[in-house]
Each structure stands twice: as structure tokens, then as C-alpha cells.
Amino acid sequence: MKTKRWLIIRRGKAERVSLLFEKRSVWMITIFSLLLIVTFLLAAGAGEVYVNPIEVGRVIFGMDANAFSKLVVESFRLPRMIVAVLVGTLLAISGSILQGVVRNPLASPDLLGITGGASVAVVMFLGMFSSPKTNALIVSIHWLPLIAICGALVAAFILYSLAWKNGLSPVRLVLMGIGVWALTKALTTLFMVKSVIYRASQANVWITGSVYGTNWDHVSVLVPVALLLILCIFLSVRQLNVQAFGEEIAVGLGGQVSKQRLWLLTLSTVTAGVAVAYGGGISFVGLMAPHIARRLVGSNYGALLPISALIGGFLVLLADTIGRTFFLPLEVPAGVFISILGAPYFIYLLIRERG
Amino acid sequence: MKIYTHQGKWLALIISIFVLILCMLGSVLLGYTDTSIHTAIQAFSHPTGVFDQLVITEVRLPRALIGAAIGGALAVAGALMQALTRNPMASPDFIGVNAGASFFIVAAMMLFSVTSLEAFLWIGLVGSAVTSLAVYLLGSVGSGGLSPLKITLAGAATAMLFASMTQGLLVLDESALDQVMFWLAGSIEGRKLELLQLVVPYLTIGFLIALFLGKSINVLQMGEDVATGLGQKTWLVKLLGLVSIVLLAGSAVSVAGPISFIGVMVPHIVKGLVGNDYRWLVPFSITIGGIVLVLADLAARFVMMPEEVPVGVMTALIGIPFFLAVARRGVGKA
């Protein structure tokens, strides 16, 4: 084997443990990680109160810093930014898995109505469990991700059972997905019209996709959940690679194809549900990030997943930062910017695809 | 149930007109306030200004008329769009026209604080013209055009784009949300008769163009080359069709807000009834579109009584099974 393109690590007795890296992917991962870190530091400083990157670094690493900037960065900006990055990451991963399993580059959790299902559940939850007098939730906010996951799972279940006709045809899945998407949209509108105006405007912000108002409570739930999911997904990379070859080859390689497919789709749905619970209906990340990543490193999931995760995190962080700094004192939800970027990109993909 | 004979079609058309009138009558009489046909007649012959009479003349009558007109307009716009794009999934709402018009109206409302209904109408027309032109161009680039799947996806993406921009604007101005929320959900409730009067000329022109185009569209459906060979100016037919779509869909959206699925659902029902002949398809779409919307509006009053469901939500709930059935069947063609 040529060692130019690959980086091989062999360890252990008789070199039993071996890892194979493509050099290009390693470079890409490094570059994007650095990009994300730099953006993170700059974004933490940007806003109504400017804090310079060095000061931000001091706050993050617990060194003594100006008390005021410590307050701003630590309690307002950091939790929100961590959530933004994680939401982007999860959406991107969910989209990559979906595109691999469905074998359709146009699939993404938002266009298939899966995030829509989660939205319906969340809007219902906010409407049903908030007291009309104080507008406060009467149950703990920690139930939110669970509710969102349930909503996403229900939508996914409806979708797959509708699309199932002697197997899961990708085209039918996408068309049915649009139907499910429209259905969830109608239901969300219904619940919003029926709820109090204050709730409706809150729900509106949330549906457009925003990480506004997150605090360390959210982070403390999201981080472990996200890490667990990411671990599960990275353990399934081999299955994903096999699935992406197509049904026949996957069977030929001896995989339990339909079982694996079900597991992967469930993983993708749960991941999207968690992302929606914290970030709302941020569309197009799940579509864009995997595409950009595929262009950069090809379709080996071992490299594709981390890259698209990094890109997803970067996109949402960037959109959120623009949303909260460019229109001061107002805030524009991150989802708006991502759609403005994502919709034209999607249409470009559609047109190019025909050729 | 397909009608083949000429006489049968005329008869069916007359019956459908009667059914439409019957539905409108139902829409005038039924609702939260109990009214009898006697009250209704009196409301027009001896108006005394009693509450029951006012409900009929001021609330329900406009609602029934608007429902019939808008339903017909949306259905015809859908039928034309399906013919022009040769795509069974096309309809103004799915192509993102409704979302586009909504965005333009909300933007005008907030950025230039436009509030007059007449201005809304114009902006709605401009918005739907811009979006339908954009999607239409998108659908006709290259030789083959877009497949049903792709045009549906492109429409969904456009709709998502406009929807999120509309939401972005609404987030910036919370008080506007209250004003436009019900309008954004699509409703024919609480619209004044004057609003309908404003759009009547546009609707009439739109309907007339569609009716006269029937024959040419039949020819166009055989394929662009055949139509050109038969001496048709295809660009003229397409242009007129587009004008008609913009007039119909634009007026509908500015009066009632985005009401979805009528444009996809009704032409399919009508095709099942009279086949693919656009000389019949257009008039039937007008009557049946009206019937469906008026009935959906009636249903919207009773589902969650005493509260009302926005009729746009109602048509979506009725129309989605339809859409899914068409999509499931049409996959082979996609």
C-alpha cells in the first residue's frame, strides 16, 4: 500500500491493533477544528459588550479576568454557543446518516418532516404545560428533549410506514416526507393559533430555530446526551459504510441489512429530535453540512461524519452570532440565516443533479 | 366514476353549480349562532338590524361568497400549473407561491407600515408573480425540465426559505405577529365583502383567460414540439397561463392568506370526473374548488366549537391524505 495517501498506525503484539487514516481527512479535520475554535473565541467576544479574544480565553480556562467580561461571557454567551455548536453538530450527523441510509442526497431530517414532528410535540408541550396566568412552565424544562424525541419518532414512524411498499424506495420516501412536513406545519399552526399570543410568539422564535435564552441548565442535559449519541453513531460507522453501497452489496457483505437500517434510522431520528429540542426548527443544516463534507473528503463515513459534524457546528454558531450581533438591539433567529444560505444551495443541488 | 358523454358533462356541471349554491346556503345558515332560513330571508327582505340578521349579512354571507370565489381560483390556478409544468404535483402552494406572497405582504406591513387592504392586494399579486416566475424558470431550465419530485422539492425549499424569512421579520416585531398570525394560517373568516369586490375584476380576468385557454392547453399537453408543429404559439399560451395563475393565486392569497392543498387536490378530483380535457377541467375546477373550500370552512366551524380552526389548517388536514395518495401512485412516473 502506498503510504503517501494513508497514515497507518499499528500497535500491540504482532501489530494487532491497526488504524488507517486518510491523510487528507486528517488535515481537513484539523483545519475545521481550528476554524471552529477560532470562530468560537471571536464569537464569544462579539456582541453588545465587546470582549477581546485573549480575555475570552482567560475566562474559559478559569484564569483571573475582568469580572464584568467574565459575567457576560460565562453566563450569557458560553452556554448559548455551546448549545449552538452541538445543535449544528447533531443536525449534521443526523442528515449524513439519513442520506447514507436512504441513499438520496436530497434527504434531510427537516425536509422529511422529522424535525417538524418534533416541533409539533414541543409546541403542544409548551401550550399544554404552561400556566395561563404566569406564562411559566408548570413542569421541568428537562422533559423537553424527551418530548421532542417522541415527536420525531412518531413522525418518522408515520413516514416510514407510508413510504413502505415492498421496501423503502428513496423517491417515495422523499415525496411522503414532503407530505408529512406539510402535515406537521399545519398542526403547528393550529396549536399556535390556539395558544396565547405570548406563547405563540415564543413558539414562533423557537420554530424558526434559535438558541436564544439557553443557560447552563440546558447545557448540562444536552452535553451528556449529545456525547452518548455521538459515541453510538461513531460505533456504527462500519454499518453506515456498508449501507451506503446499496442493498445488494450490503446483503452480499453479510450485514443484517434491514435490522441495521432500522437502527441507523432510529439513531438519526433521535439525534434530530434532540437537536430540535434545543435549537428549534433550524432547517437545511442537515442537508448542507453532509454535502459540503462529501465534496471535501468523499463518502467514507469515518471521515465524512466528523467533518460534517464540524461544519454543522460551525454553520449554526456563525448564524447565531450574526443573528445576535448584526441587528442590535434586536435578535434574529439563527434559522433565518441558515435558510437564506441553505435554500438556494438546495435548489442548486436539484438542478445540478439532473445533468 | 368518469363521465364520457357531452350531455353528461353539461348535466354534471349544472349539478355541481347547484351543489355549490347549496353549500353556500349551508354556510350562511349553519354555525355557532343558530339561524333559520326564515331569518335569512328576512335579513334581506326586511333588514331590522337584529343580531341574528347581522350575523348573516355581515359575517356569513361574505364568508360564503369569498370561500366559493377563492376555492375556485386556487383550484384553477393549480390545474393550470399542473398543465404548464406537466407535473401532477404542482400547485401554487406547493411551489411556494403562497409563502412568497405572504412574505411580501408581511415585509410591506412591517418595513413600510402598509395597512390598506388595496395595497395588500397589489403586494400579494407582485409577490406571487415574482415567486411563480422564479419557480417556473427554475422548472424549465435545460431541455427536460424538472421531474415531479424535483419541482416538489424545489417548491418546498422555496416555501421554507420564505417562511423562515417571514418568521424572522415577525420575531423582530412581536406586535405584528398578533395582526398577521391568523392571516398567515389562512382564513376566510372576518373578511369584509369589500375585500372581495376589490379582487373581483382580477379573478374574472383570470377565470376568463383560463376558460379560453382550455383548447390550447389540450394541444400543449401533447408536448411542446407537437404543439409548435400544429402552429401554436406556445410561448403565448404559456404566458397567458402564467398571467392567469398569478391573478388567481395572487388575489386568493391576498384575500385569504395561504390556503394550501386546494390547488393540488381539486384538479385531481376533477380529472377523475371528466378526464384530462382542459375545456371541461377548468369550469369543473371552479365549481368543485368552491364546494371544497366552503365545506372545509363549515367543518372548521364545527370541529372545535365554539372556537374556530383556521380553514387553511382544515384544508391541509383534508388534502394531505390526497397528496400522499397521489405521491404514492405517481412514484413510478417520477
Automatic annotation (TrEMBL), chain A:
GO biological process: siderophore-iron import into cell
Membrane topology of this protein: Multi-pass membrane protein
Pfam families given in the database record: FecCD (PF01032)
GO molecular function: transmembrane transporter activity
Subcellular location: Cell membrane
CDD domains according to UniProt: TM_ABC_iron-siderophores_like
GO cellular component, one term: plasma membrane
Transmembrane segment boundaries: 26-46, 78-98, 110-129, 141-162, 174-198, 218-237, 262-289, 301-319, 326-351
SUPFAM superfamilies referenced in this protein's UniProt entry, alphabetically: ABC transporter involved in vitamin B12 uptake, BtuC
Family named by the database record: Belongs to the binding-protein-dependent transport system permease family. FecCD subfamily.
Protein name as annotated: Iron complex transport system permease protein
The organism of origin for this protein: Baia soyae
Lineage: Bacteria, Bacillati, Bacillota, Bacilli, Bacillales
TrEMBL record, chain B:
Family that this chain belongs to: Belongs to the binding-protein-dependent transport system permease family. FecCD subfamily.
Single Gene Ontology BP annotation: siderophore-iron import into cell
InterPro entries linked to this entry: ABC_BtuC-like, ABC_transptr_permease_BtuC
Gene Ontology molecular functions: transmembrane transporter activity
Protein name, UniProt field: Iron complex transport system permease protein
Cleaved signal peptide residues: none
Lineage: Bacteria, Bacillati, Bacillota, Bacilli, Bacillales
Record membrane topology: Multi-pass membrane protein
